[in-house]
Amino acid sequence: MITDREHYHGIALARIAAAFPEGMQIRPESSGYRNSYVLNERIGLHLKFSGARIAPWSFNFLANQVDEVATLVREFGDAWLIFICGLEGVAGIRYSELTSGLERVSGGAPFNLTITRRPGHAFMIVNPGGDPIRLPESALGRGLARDASVQPTHARHRLDPEADEPSTQPAPDALEWRAPRVGGIGYPEPHQIDASGAAS
Fold this sequence. Notes:
The chain is globular, with a radius of gyration of 17 Å. The strands form three sheets. A seven-stranded mixed sheet has the order 6-5-3-2-1-10-13, with helices on both faces. The chain has a four-stranded antiparallel sheet with strand order 4-7-8-9. The chain contains three helices and 13 strands, in the order αββββαβββββαββββ. It is α+β, with helices and mostly antiparallel strands. The protein has helices at about 5-15, 65-75, 135-150, and strands spanning about 25-30, 35-40, 45-50, 55-60, 80-85, 90-95, 110-115, 125, 135, 175-180, 180, 185, 190. It has one domain (about 5-190).
């Protein structure tokens, strides 16, 4: 059975893949966290979903999820928080762009975020202790594409801290996506995955 987490994560990953017409690589974060992924070995993604049909959408960050975000920030210098707002859409923001109300993440304290949206308008974070933060859906793909510095589709690059050049050895549990242009629209096509979870 497909879980809610798999369903909503699939929605977000398909949207993200569409921003990479030349292809991309994505894999689960290697620490075993269930909600975090690594994009092109350069960006940490932390996915949150709300099944609410209409605004507002509430997202709780429990202590272990705060640890997930902190792990991504330590590993990549920043992290993207990706919010799946029911079937309304997907929004995202860099951790570094969040302001006062979320500075508690660095202290390890749980927190809550609320996202709202008026018809025909962008998503908006109701930011505790700060001004609302506007999250246009179109800005998500552009920001990720810019930060990821797209890697070749068929080579799984893994950054080796001991080497000057990226390694081309397969990253564990990596899944590569191609997003060919179909009628002018990026459409994600996953590689086949065998029973062991390995991408082919």
